[in-house]
Amino acid sequence: MSDGRSSLDRLAGRPILAFVAHADDCALFIGGTIRLLADAGCPITLVRFTDDCTDSDGLDPSETIRRNDRELQEACEILGIRHRHDLGYPSDTLGDVRRGELREHAIRLIRQVRPYAVLTFDPYARFGEDNQDHIRIAQEVDEAFWTSMFDKHHPEHLQAGLAPHGVVERWYFGRRVTEPTDVIDISAAMPAKTEAAVAHRTMMGNLMRQLTLMGRTAEVDSDWLGGVLGDQDAIVRRMVGHSTTEAFRVVRFSGFAALFDDAPRHRTIPDAARTDAARTDAASTPDASPRPPTSERPDLNGSA
To answer: pTM, whole model, 2 decimals?
Structure first.
């Protein structure tokens, strides 16, 4: 198993694409690694599939969406994420979406962003995974890795000016990665990961409500509950701070990494300006999707 340092060095300066279900997934699952990659010069694009319309306590759906959107942007700025796409599916409903629809979004975004590596949920790390949004993204993005290279899959993308693209590295994460290949030491990024998690005040508030409800069902003393759960930020910091590592199952070259071990390479790392310009071109490409994103965030650093 790799300690992750060489893997991070290998990705330095290269474009990264991360697929998540919900606003807080990035900070909680991979926030430390994302911050380290940003510090290594990687232009990072985050794709959120849902609108998180249900994840609040005592707010209507529209206000819930507004707050979670704002707090996600704050977390993105803390973690160094430059670009963001929101696909806008109602939260907690991806299990009801017809098969293939989510995959088409992933294929299109891979062809637009053209990343070196993609981070997403592991379809085989289901121990303790009870969230169908996570499971469906894991399944459909997993297929998008190879179907994005096939010119017969969604030829309408090619007609719109996109081209097949091969992702070199797949970084799978989950609640528990059953066969991790890389464990990343995120000690240096813990302050950023923690603050990004705390930024999700609305979603973490709903988590406190869930814990309170379960405590009441278990007949836990109400004063104790109020004392322990009353300091939301402290609970989140404790939850995030229990580990200074993040585990991944990394697959390189779709399992053919040995074939490329001795291959000569002519590596050119695009500077930020060229990378941002390329993303601007991709963002202006007509969306061939039957259900276009409800919003696409511009560069958080101010570029178009």
So the answer is: 0.85
